[in-house]
Amino acid sequence: MLVNRILNDKASLPGHVYRSLIQTFKDRLEERKVLLEKKASVTAVSPRARRDDAHAVIKHVTGTLLEVRPGLGSTPAFTESTATAVESLVFGQLYELVFEEIVAETSERDATLMDKIGSFEEERKEDDDNLISTLAIDALGILPEAHSAVDKLHYCVRFLELVSEHFSDGTIGADSLLKLVCQHIVKARLAHMNAEVAFLEEFARDEQLLRGREGYALVTLQASLHFLNMSSDFEKDIFAQDDDEENVPVGSDMNTNTKS
Q1: Which positions ≥6 away from 166 have C-beta within 8 Å?
Q2: pTM score, two decimals?
Q3: CATH: 1.20.1050.80, 1.20.1250.20, 2.60.40.1880, 3.40.50.10170. Which one for 2-255?
Q4: Contacts of 45 (CB under 8 A, 6+ apart)
Q5: Which residues make beta-bridge pairs with 173?
Q6: Which region holds residue 175: left if phi is over 0, alpha if psi is between -120 and 50, else beta?
Q7: What distance in Å separates the CA atoms of residue 189 and residue 234, rounded to the nearest whole number?
Q8: Is the dihedral of CA 78, 82, 87, 88 positive or negative?
Q9: What is the pLDDT of the chain when averaged over all its residues?
Q10: So what's the pLDDT on residue 247?
Q11: For residues 193 and 143, what is the distance between their CA atoms, to the nearest angstrom?
Q12: CA–CA distance, 155 with 158 (Å, rounded to integer)
């Protein structure tokens, strides 16, 4: 709340820097659009310009804030909280523009994945509702509504916890957790799942990923999505039951300190 108040104070230096850089980001975006309209062959415009500008805005606003209010950086925990608050405010203004760039970059992968999911659902006749946690699907479905890395990671962790809890009364093979996550991604049908993970890869900070659960959740989603993108047969690779796996508790890895 303190960071919010300072950055929204028109009389404060951090507030001035925040508003100026947000406007500069938007001005640069319009300049690039005009340039591309005038010279369609221009290749000098970086396909990740918006992401680079967003990183710069977050960095400079955070730096100015810590310089003016050094108490906000008095401990690593305070510094991390301050950076997270700045990120949330910046993406409150710029998220759609930044995510649009990522969606464009991952559009082919996401379109291919959605086509495979559509074809699979048309052909599949077996009832697999017992494999699916509706609560986990709901948690994953909130991912597009989260506009910062920390919020997206929160729902990723919650999603993985709910998938694990769905099988808390028994044991399954350790490798089956990956398949379960894949099954839930298929059922969730998020149009931009590759873009969601790419956003986290871009903006999730090491301090967030080193907490254990957040890092493990992202690594699990990365592996599951890669598996889905590479698979040419969801029935065989993901939904077929394998009785030969070693039986261990599904949720055991969620309590480790796996780092990304």
Answers
A1: 132, 133, 135, 136, 180
A2: 0.87
A3: 1.20.1050.80
A4: 32, 35, 36
A5: 247
A6: alpha
A7: 14
A8: positive
A9: 87
A10: 42
A11: 9
A12: 5
